[in-house]
Write a structure and sequence with these properties.
homodimer, 500 residues, mainly alpha, Neurolysin, domain 3, three-stranded mixed β-sheet, 3 strands, globular
Amino acid sequence: MRPELLLVKERDKKIMSLKGIEALLSWDQETILPEKANDYRSQQMGLMSSIIQEEATKDDFRRAVESLDGDESLALEDRALVHYWKRFFQSNANLPISFVKKEGEALGRSHQAWLKARSDNDFSYFAPYLENLVALSKEKAKIIAPDKSCYDALLDLYEEDLDKKLLDPLFDDLIKSTHSLMDKIEDKEIDDSMLYQSYDERALHSFSLELNKRMGFDNSRGYVALSAHPFTTMIGPDDIRVTTRYTDPSIFDPISSIVHETGHALYDLNANLNEKIAHSSIGQGVSMGIHESQSRFWENMMGRSLAYWTYMYPILQDYIPSLKSVKLDDFYKAINKVKPSAIRVNADEVTYNLHIILRYKMEKLLFEGNVEIRELPELWNKLSKELIRYDVKDDREGILQDVHWAGGLFGYFPTYSLGNLYGAAFRSKLISDLGGPDNLDRILESGNWSEITCWQNENIWKHGGIYSPSKLIERVTGKSLDANAFKVYLIEKYSRIYDL
Amino acid sequence: MRPELLLVKERDKKIMSLKGIEALLSWDQETILPEKANDYRSQQMGLMSSIIQEEATKDDFRRAVESLDGDESLALEDRALVHYWKRFFQSNANLPISFVKKEGEALGRSHQAWLKARSDNDFSYFAPYLENLVALSKEKAKIIAPDKSCYDALLDLYEEDLDKKLLDPLFDDLIKSTHSLMDKIEDKEIDDSMLYQSYDERALHSFSLELNKRMGFDNSRGYVALSAHPFTTMIGPDDIRVTTRYTDPSIFDPISSIVHETGHALYDLNANLNEKIAHSSIGQGVSMGIHESQSRFWENMMGRSLAYWTYMYPILQDYIPSLKSVKLDDFYKAINKVKPSAIRVNADEVTYNLHIILRYKMEKLLFEGNVEIRELPELWNKLSKELIRYDVKDDREGILQDVHWAGGLFGYFPTYSLGNLYGAAFRSKLISDLGGPDNLDRILESGNWSEITCWQNENIWKHGGIYSPSKLIERVTGKSLDANAFKVYLIEKYSRIYDL
């Protein structure tokens, strides 16, 4: 093995180990940390991230990565690892320390300001902070990719090769097809009141754990806990953790949370079973978008399907006896109810992408168009009416809704919608490999889903970060990403549900 | 402020923060970590400890500490901080990296060997590893304190200024008085069968949490969890965590565990409320021995007293209704039953020190006498019979009983007994400050123990690591440590219980 490759592999393992420690600090903060320890914990996390940054930006490491770049004699997974670090050295590692410090301080202040603005429903308080963050992100974009437009540089940070040229037609296509579906559904009502009854948390948690296990989560390599916002994190190659919550009034929220997070977890758990990439930076999902496709595939495409609940519903009824008087079909319709609404994270499967497209359009304007920060709330509300067909009541359900911008995450939102599109494309290929939709249904109805997860593992999971998102989707489906599979999926599913 | 002092304070804060991260890794390992992640976690912990060691042994830090040493113009707490690091540079930091590596590897192998030997009840398997560890500790002792005898050097590592000259007469005194008490108790029997009934774990845990809170544990600055072996750890100045367990057949084991660990936790929680020392290496208990005195003070001297249970017993009976048929006095006697037994951690308050003295005598022989490793099991059994008056059945309850030696901890055991002696000395001064034992009883019987904890805080906790153990005990009690207070305490208490 070339000594440079050995150095890169060793350094990468060390950095992964340090990142796992950082992830533990964060996991503990969300699940256990005593209230008054929060500031100190933030300092500890800052300390860890500076240790990681120092380790990752050492000269010998950078030189080794550069010397290996383009070496076609390397094994596929080694080339992927070199590529991973090359991307790092082109982006994060290229930022001067003075910039990183300035950005870090700005982010700390912004988060506090966003919290206050949101609680007071007063955007003007957050506005100067947001303006500053946008300016910093423009500065960042210019440093990391001087040849690209600002927003394309940011998009690529979260999803390799993603740009406006790809997203614009995809999103236009989605708007059109979603609106056409919404027109047909119009004011057809579904009764979902049975989801909003009070429930026994302990019973529902037992059901959640059963779902988690049934999907193939390995408790000897992971753990499930509670937190205010569900998330998945990797603390080590055999230590993938998910959280869920029981704070939403809907009985279905905890169910979709656990299924969603378990979808994420299975990706990392299985990538790390591939010895060639385990314990390394490519021993995990390849991108935000592909990761989200795995969680949303389970949460929505499997976990909100009739076949899935044909098996699971009687089990759920045993845990939550008050559902015994509700018919499967009524439950199925309720969990798929379509209704334009304010809050992205609670949106139904049909209108969800419109929430993303709204943010995408605003981010494009912020970075490449002409818009004043003070015009943003009104713009949000206008886009909400046009796209989602929802009248925003106040800035808390408008411009102040998400934490992302206060965290400097511009260009991140589109990966959520990519997740839906990738997910549907994978589903379509899975169905064709299984020999038709009835075969998928039969598997779901059997309650033994290993044929599905084996397919995911063979096609997606076990490759970890070896293939770029665009290469992966081509490799699996034979073509580049489009919105067709998702459009067909929605029309078929919702035509049946709403009898269109 | 002298720039060297500023450097020392900043570096110390950073190291404390890193040590907190290391403590979190360890806490998580004992409470949550998935089974298959154990090896990786050990690597992560090794990585953190090498980062800490690197930070702590930097030349500029050492030079700053050395330049401040002996500067009488410094504030008391700053002198203590300099002294703390001076001790470090004289001990750990003086060990060559080659030695640290050799010892680390030996410890890893020894722990595995001890586990296997213990499970197979085969000391000969562990013997060569133990021999190696003893040799390594002798080497270490010579490096860190070439002027001292080997064993004195090791004793001082865990308790400043502790040596054989101090321990020999104390322990001889203890043997004599303990045997005299045991002679009187002889075969007087106490029925403690009511402690060995099956119990509702959840109810007992609720009671544990009530005790923990009643002692003054602050849930906004700490957390209680479960682990195989109870322990207390400091992850940050406002983040002190304790664990307990419900695996012992005795109903009283979880109770004494939580009280013991909460005793430890209160020390660190309150030391860190003193702004002059908070977040620093001296913002925690000063030594193992003093720390243990705070836990055993609560566990035994308060938590096994009649006055304490006069208040707490009806509450316990509410949680564990099967105790309603048991009288307070019978319960009180049961939890104080004296019986020579095999296992140190389950020993009663009277015979406990004999277990420690046995190990002390063996360690002295190992380091400064003439004994072959292969003779150790027999020696253990002989000492057990002489000291504890217990016939050891096999090496699992003999030489292979404790994990300490497999972890290279020689010279550590005596701190447990010191905890008893310090604890009794503090108790005696507390009683005199309160105006007599009846006043202490009245406080315990009231269920509001803040007068006791305030006294502890004023006299012990808030000083953290400012005073050395020997200075602290003199400062509080007006004299140096002896066994008198403990002897008097035992005789008074057990004369009443056993009607001697």
